[in-house]
Sequence to fold (536 residues):
Amino acid sequence: MNAHSRTHSDENGDAHAASIIFDALELTVFSQSVAMLAEEMGSLLERSSISPNIRERRDASCALFDADGRMVAQAAHIPVHLGAMPESVAAVRAAGAAPGDCFLLNDPSHGGSHLPDLTMVEVIADPANASRIVGYAAVRAHHADVGGMSPGSMPFGATELFQEGLIVPPVRIERGGVAQVDVMQLILANVRTPAEREGDLRAQRAACRAGREGWQALYARMGASQLGLAVDALLNYTERRVRASLARLNGAAGYAADALESDGVTDVDIPVVVTVRVHHDTLQLDLTGTSGAVRGNVNAPPAVARAAAVFVLRVLCDDDVPVNDGVARALHLLIPDNCVANAKRPSAVAAGNVELSQRLTDTCFAALADAAASVGVHDLPIPAGGQGTMNNVTMGATGWSFYETLGGGQGASARGAGPDAVHVGMSNTRNTPVESLERAYPLRVVEYAVRRGSGGGGLHHGGDGVIRRYEARMECTATLLTERRRLSPRGAYGGADGVSGINRLNDTVLPAKCRVTLHAGDVLSIETPGGGGWGT
Fold:
């Protein structure tokens, strides 16, 4: 799969004109304006959602796209969401989007990542011509349940997508601004917590509406031609900045291999292999050698691999480089047809979005560090292995479902030590506050602390993980989808590996991936991995 694409402006010969019309100040103002529209969408979503997973943890992302489906701006939300959302907008466009329509989807073969991530896309109409599409507002949010074989829709042992929840292809929940009530009723009839789901979907709808109104105001103020040139100029500027960051690595080549610990069905390591080359200011990533599709649910659609690659590329750039479709123009991604990162229906994918994405990220960083060393570059901000997992914890019983991911140690880098107790790599969520968790669910957090000493040593120390212990107040099920319980996060340039994580039910050690029953008074303990150290 090639992530590189020509720009609309290149095809029409307008790139030079755009660079003349917009000076650096004007382009900065435009870039910040569209970025703030996406941030405002996210702020509204957080304030109006119902579930702690979206309201408190902020497990959601927002972005704006132009009429050609190019991502113009994204809020600083979840990397694994935002790198994949262009696929969702492309799927909506392919479904015959019309002005005023609003779509919902989660199907991994049509722009989705995994089923709990419900993506809403509003088709933005020209405020002066209702028959003309001028852009798209998109919001992706992780819902705490979308049906399937276990509460929380992140099941252990799933071997087919159908077991993981309700599959939603791009379907209109509004047609020309008119709500399709029967479609929403069908969706809510297939989840365990319909009231909470309806509230979160309404919050997503409000966020899309805010994006639409902001984009329409920008369109009305600038006009179609000027806005189109501004978008061209912004994406071209981003591409130039990204390629400039890669220029010093031209000719570099590197390789790295790692593995997932199991797929939840068979206890066999799953190889993840990445070869890196930098040629003509383009980052080429080749996943040849990575495992083929597996029976368990650690498979992932190509959009997730693309998200990991875009994230790695963005880390190489200065902090002020905008994040839009211009980044991916400097990326060439090759994924074999039969690959765990190229899931085909009906492969199960719930854990692929959260765990394979993390392993791809760490392996890409390691291969990139190897490539940089091949041309004598050692000062790039490439971290050692982070905790390498999202530590997915799902708990539930009749009438409630709780989901969260847990932070751990970030890998150290040439810039300094890795931070403690943070979400790393493809996760950028917050924690669920203890007070919010205990108020919403029959659970009690008996300990929440930094796991001191779990980060790897070195010139720069890896970050420490966390300890989180939950006491069940009633009988419920708990599903764990975790990694780095056996294969430790790797250090870099002679730094020590981080300490692997461990899961326990009372005093019994649990597998990395499992489903267990908790009785009232039982304590589930999660100790997350530390990050790798950097340097001797």
Remarks:
- The first strand starts at residue 60 and ends at 66.
- Confidence is low (pLDDT under 50) at residues 1-19.
- The chain has 13 helices and 20 strands.
- The longest helix spans residues 194-222.
